[in-house]
Amino acid sequence: MEKLAQKIAQYVRKNEEKYTDLSRKIWEYAELAFREEKSAAALIDLMKDEGFSVETDLAGIPTAFVARYGSGKPVIGFLGEYDALPSLSQKAGSAVREPLIPDGAGHGCGHNLLGVGAAAAAIAAKDYMKEYGLSGTVAFYGCPAEENGSAKIYMARDGVFNEVDGAFTWHPGGNNSIMGEHSLAAVSVLYSFKGRATHAAGQPHLGRSALDACELMNVGVNYMREHMIPEARVHYAYRDAGGGAPNVVQDHATLYYYIRAPKISQVLELQKRVDNIARGAALMTETTLSIEVTSGLCDYIPNRTLSKLLHESFTATGAPEFDDQDFALARTFWETYPEKEREAKARSYGAKCGEEYVERFRTQPLEDVIFPLQFPATPLYGSTDVGDVSYVCPTAWLNAATYAMGTAGHSWQLAAQSGCSIGEKGMLAAAKAMAHAAVRALQDPQIIERAKEEHQKNEPYQCAIPDDMMPPIEK
């Protein structure tokens, strides 16, 4: 393994400047969901230059693509993302608020690093295949709109990942570890009621209130909470309250619901109950109802076979190689975070990696060690479209340290660190680990067979969005 690690490091190192330059370009582009034209084009050019064939416009999404090298089985996939978040524009490396563009977008989740790191892993695996005559296929999947749109659900529904025998991905983080947690499955639904407007004082008996229907639906769902599994989560917000005049019976109102549970099958069952409550509210108020699913995500299922392989590879290739300047820069951010928030983060990481590490998390602003592999029973209380991929094929996920301990996700502080050396060194470490794991899987067919045997024990894939639902792409 040591010899392979050295070889992979050599492949990544020869293109290091190219990768860091590209991650900074994508950081500067900071394109929002489904609008990542420059970012996708830059990644496509990189893959073509490296000898990959490229297929574009996947699942009806112009910025989704796959770049392949080699032929035949097994097919090892790498998942990359490159979308930014709104209102997080920030000067790179600055621990004080300095937007580059007022109210502009920024990479507050580090996806400029994520996409390039996954591409770099695919290229390093390709280089090994080419030098040593290794058979099989490596494929880099350009996956847009993770933050707001979840493009992977459309890609998975349309069979884009059906060819994959094993998939690797990573995410910028505050520590170096393998994602052993399950995430929650989720579905997002709009419930729109239509009634009849009238003067609320002069002739209220002629009106039918859509707002009343929303209120009754919320009451019904709140009563349901006692009778659903405790791990489930149901949240709602008003998208339309029918207007601001209390002397008018509101003839339109809309609720936006998120429904989450540990398994997609549980979410879909719970959604049926919420749908029925909405129908009951419409009956009680004599209003009409439309139900529109806007998004749906499967729970992420870590494949233990590939996760163990990825952990071994990460251990072999090593954590990010931070220097004194990186630690000093991380400390400038770390010291601005409230002590209570730093303590909460230390505790949460301790629960994941082991209580013996809590003191380290309290005092070290930047992590340069790889933490033990864990498969916690407690899920990650969030959702990701990587979950749909994990239902289609065995999937493993690596977290690499790219920002100071305690940095909040989706923040300008994270955007600032994603555009400097701290983020880039984490990106390169992730690329090496994933490439190493991919080569080992290509070399040993039994690894993929074990991963697939494990995967077959999962529930069948159920896409949570309707077959005719199209990606929300602005024309």
Describe this protein's structure.
The structure is a single chain. The protein is α/β, with parallel strands linked by helices. It folds into two domains: 2-183 and 299-455, Aminopeptidase (3-Layer(aba) Sandwich); 185-297, Alpha-Beta Plaits (2-Layer Sandwich), CATH 3.30.70. It is 42% helix and 17% strand. The protein contains 15 helices and eleven strands. Strands 1-2-4-3-5-11-6 form a seven-stranded mixed β-sheet, sandwiched between helices. A four-stranded antiparallel β-sheet has the order 8-9-7-10. Strand 3 (75-80), helix 4 (111-132) and strand 4 (136-142) form a beta-alpha-beta unit. Helix 1 packs across helix 4, helix 1 crosses helix 14 (421-443) and helix 14 (421-443) packs across helix 15. The chain starts with a helix and ends in a 20-residue tail after the last helix. The model has no long low-confidence stretch (mean pLDDT 96).
Defining traits:
475 residues; Aminopeptidase; Alpha-Beta Plaits; 2 domains; 7-stranded mixed beta sheet; 4-stranded antiparallel beta sheet; 15 helices; 11 strands; 42% helix; 17% strand; globular
